[in-house]
Design a protein that fits this description.
The complex is a heterodimer of chains A (about 700) and B (about 160). Chain A is an alpha+beta fold. In chain A, about 30% of the residues lie in helices and about 25% in strands. The chains are: A alpha+beta (about 700), B alpha+beta (about 160).
Chain lengths: ~700, ~160
């Protein structure tokens, strides 16, 4: 589990100009990573500003586009800073070095006499009249980054830790949904409850006669409509949804976790290390499970497509514009170079949501009206019902204790729905609409992500604890018709929940303090440091029982990325209310310390919402959630104070922050509830019904 | 084609005349007919608050408010900035990096503005309760509340 497969972007895109482009009074950063709301653009700007000595405001991030940007695959796995950020840093250092060398030649001086302030090149402190951006226009940016000798020269100090894009996101119109184009048509697609599906009956003439409908598009079981006025599209789509008949696989279990528990899929060994403990060793067992979780982005998916002759242009908010381009080209019978995809920000993205499928929807509608751009906007019900959910999981974990009460081994057994149904996965375009159109093909059998990519159902299933024996045995259950794919942290959420619950159950069984137990089973000083730090942040903790308790959760994301410890203080009456949360995190060098804190705070609150409140309701092969009333999430008055300490590790490589907090938060909350009640509630969500059901079951 | 009427609205202080069906929600009138796209579509059910605007001084979900029922001037998030500078709410949200994707913030800012204008000096808990109809998925709640507490103090001071 120690190595994560990452392509080195500088070997694929070795030139300065692959990453940086001077344009007038600005320097554009051209990463292939996309701004999902996580603040990657701000962080890349910060890196480029620090390296070049340009003012923060003179740098902009060019939104990723397949015809302009390096192909960096998916923006996923908390790897953007770790991989792309360091490529931009090296490219910016190379650009600065070339500019300084050129300036030294022009001035006939030594390079070390020069410095850069706010983009101006100074010689022993005096303005030379030369500036970095001006010089950059004349430099050969096809120069290889790695072959440029680095000249380290004094430049600007602290760079502001801000989000330059936030103003427009509040008071302007920067989103995909906001783009205005001449001749734009509004498109809606009437989705079957599941795929594959047959469209048994629809009155196309009646639909075409609905107010404002300019065209009905039908291709097999793919059904859509176009209007000039957006409200007409909303109304016509509502009418159509109530007047179509579908045939699809509706003979499916409603209790998904029961289906996972009883599946006879054979287990697959992910990992076995060390010597198995004696058969007679004392054992402690626990289970953890989560239902399907919705991405729940506040803005449902959208896309714009424009089809002209044999060229397709798409504007979308996909996590992976390059894989999507290839998938759409294959699905539509076009050459990849005929499909051009530009990323435009939309509402927060936490994994594989409906963005890619909405892009395919838009393309199919646009094909019917060549020359006119079509915007597809999914409804809230579309997003709940037809975007992939995060996979349900059931995880069994057991610990073997030696004669001294130390943990001699752990076995973790995840049973999981698939975490990987992204475009291109399974050697198939894997786009929803492709299983509906004539000549299309059904979705492929999903596979799990290999451990070399961080794993899927077994992500974080190998305990980080230093144990004589560790074993992970997974079962990927792909027989359920409900569509699932990658959601923030993948299997790392439920696996860490199970392991951390098991640690507290061992602590209780052996009469050990949960923090001491963890520290005594870790040999990584950075892991110990986040646990010690969070333990020191809280002051006196509740003594447990009487409905008040505390709990801790810890993990190193993917066992290779950021370290995070979370400690929660809860009160359990009928519901769980969270009094306070503390967290300590080590992501190596924090490029944007406030950005890291923001990601950890947000990760904690999102995971808190998953843990305490969320479950996607399913029945007879379809998701039944239609509105936010069917899928409650965290509200403002339920939010506890959250305090985050970011440990400063300026000399260690940056490790990424986006997903580090999810599993530890679930572990901390589950353990706190156990401490308050004296009883483990194994199944999420930890809401009133689940607690009552567990207590009644005894 | 359809039964359209003329409506005279005032949006951010500017008189605007539109022709629309009476049942067209204000959200679509603003975004699609007027090109005022700073108000977001979230759910269309009035349950997430992303489309919150101020109508006649009160917060309203534009996605389920028919244009025919709009009685009074409309304010959107674009009104938070202008030649006179930024409103304390926008200023506080920006200075605290109070957001991630920011999609919910236009509606949250408008709900907060309507609330703080009639509840000067509101406490953090009161602000949080007032925002319970607005969802944030990125988990920026505490930063948003920090910012709105700061804005509340500033608005009280200048009231």
């Amino acid at each position: 589990m120690k190595s994560v497969l990452v392509r080195d972007p500088l070997s694929l895109f070795p030139r300065i100009g692959d990453w940086l482009e001077p344009q007038g009074a600005r320097l554009l950063v051209k990463s292939g990573r996309v701004e999902l709301g996580q603040g990657i653009d701000a962080a890349l700007i910060r890196i480029a500003a620090a390296e070049t000595g340009l003012p923060h405001g003179a740098i902009a991030a060019l939104p990723a586009a397949t015809h302009l940007s390096p192909n960096e695959g998916f923006t996923a796995g908390s790897l953007s800073i770790t991989v792309s950020g360091l490529a931009v840093r090296q490219a910016a250092a190379a650009l600065r070095s070339l500019a300084i060398a050129t300036a030294a030649e022009i001035r006939g001086c030594a390079a070390d006499a020069l410095s850069i302030r706010d983009g101006h090149i100074l010689q022993t402190g005096e303005d030379t009249g030369l500036d970095l951006l001006g010089l950059a226009q004349g430099l050969d940016l096809s120069t290889l980054v790695r072959e440029t000798p680095v000249i380290d020269t004094p430049r600007n100090g602290a760079v502001p830790d801000t989000r330059p894009d936030l103003r427009a996101r509040i008071a302007g119109a920067p989103f995909l949904q906001d783009i205005a184009m001449d001749g734009l048509l509004h498109g809606r697609v009437i989705h079957p409850p599941n795929v594959p599906a047959q469209l048994i009956a629809v009155d196309e003439a009646a639909l075409a006669a609905r107010p404002g409908v300019v065209k009905v598009v039908r291709d097999g079981a793919f059904l859509g409509l176009l209007t000039e006025v957006e409200w007409h599209a909303v109304r016509a789509a509502e009418w159509a949804a109530a007047h179509v008949t579908w045939q699809y696989e509706d003979n499916a279990p409603d209790d998904v976790r029961d289906a996972l528990r009883t599946s006879n899929v054979p287990p697959e060994l992910s990992l076995e290390e060390g010597d198995a403990p004696d058969a007679g060793a004392r054992r402690v067992e626990t289970t953890a499970s989560r239902p399907y979780i919705s991405h729940g982005s506040i803005g449902p998916s959208a896309a714009i497509a424009l089809w002209q002759k044999d060229r397709l242009q798409v504007w979308c908010h996909s996590q992976g514009i390059f894989p999507l381009r290839n998938a759409m080209a294959e699905a539509l019978g076009l050459a990849p170079e005929s499909v051009e995809i530009t990323f435009v920000p939309a509402a927060g993205c936490y994994g594989h949501n409906g963005a890619d499928d909405a892009a395919m929807d838009a393309a199919l509608l646009a094909r019917a009206v060549p020359g006119r751009p079509v915007r597809v906007q999914w409804s809230r019900a579309d997003e709940f019902g037809f975007a992939a959910s995060g996979a349900a999981m059931v995880v069994e974990a057991e610990a073997f204790l030696d004669a001294d009460g130390r943990i001699a081994g752990m076995v973790v057994r995840p049973r999981s729905a698939p975490h990987m149904n992204r475009p291109g996965s399974g050697g198939h375009p894997n786009l929803r609409a492709l299983s509906l159109i004539e000549g299309g093909s059904p979705p492929p059998v999903p596979r799990d992500l290999p451990l070399a990519s961080g794993g899927g159902s077994d992500r974080n299933a190998a305990p980080l604890y230093a144990l004589p024996y560790r074993k992970v045995e997974k079962r990927l259950v792909d027989t359920l018709p409900y569509r699932t794919s990658s959601l923030r942290a993948l299997g790392g959420f439920a696996n860490v929940l199970a392991i951390e619950a098991l640690m507290d159950d061992v602590a209780a069984a052996t009469g050990t303090d949960p923090i001491a137990l963890r520290l005594s089973h870790l040999d990584d000083p950075r892991a110990q440091a986040v646990i010690r730090t969070v333990a020191g942040m809280t002051g006196p903790r509740p003594s447990g029982g009487d409905g008040r308790g505390w709990g801790i959760g810890f993990a190193r994301y993917k066992n290779t990325a950021g370290y995070c410890a979370v400690l929660a203080d809860v009160t359990v009456d009928e519901d769980v209310s969270v009094n306070r949360i503390w967290s300590a995190v080590d992501v190596g060098e924090a490029i944007s310390p406030d950005g890291v804190a923001n990601q950890i705070e947000g990760g904690i609150l999102q995971a808190l919402s998953w843990t305490l409140k969320e479950a996607v309701p399913v029945a007879a092969g379809r998701v039944t959630a239609q509105t936010w009333d069917d899928y409650p999430i965290l509200r403002f008055s339920e939010v506890p104070p959250v305090t985050v300490t970011v440990l400063d590790r300026p000399d260690d490589p940056p490790l990424g922050a986006g997903e580090a907090a999810a599993g530890p938060t679930a572990g901390a909350l589950s353990n706190a509830v156990r401490h308050a009640l004296g009883v483990r509630i194994p199944d999420l969500p930890l809401n009133r019904e689940m607690i009552a059901r567990t207590l009644l079951r005894g | 084609m359809t039964d359209r009427h003329v409506f005279d609205l005032t949006v951010n202080g500017v008189p605007r005349r539109v022709e629309a069906e009476p049942d067209m929600p204000l959200l679509y009138v603003l975004r699609d007919l007027m090109g005022e796209r700073e108000t977001r579509f979230g759910c269309g059910d009035g349950l997430c608050g992303a489309c919150t605007v101020i109508v006649d001084g009160r917060a309203a979900e534009a996605c389920d408010l028919p244009v025919s029922a709009v009685a009074g001037p409309v304010e959107t998030a674009a009104s938070l900035t202008g030649p006179a500078g930024d409103h304390p709410i926008l200023d506080a949200l920006l200075s605290r990096n109070a957001g991630q994707c920011g999609y919910c913030l236009s509606g949250i800012a408008m709900r907060a503005k309507a609330f703080l204008e009639v509840t000067p000096g509101a406490s953090r808990a009161e602000i949080a309760r007032a925002l319970d109809r607005n969802l944030c998925r990125c988990g920026a709640h505490n930063r948003i509340l920090d910012a709105l507490e700061q804005a509340a103090a500033q608005m009280e001071g200048t009231a």
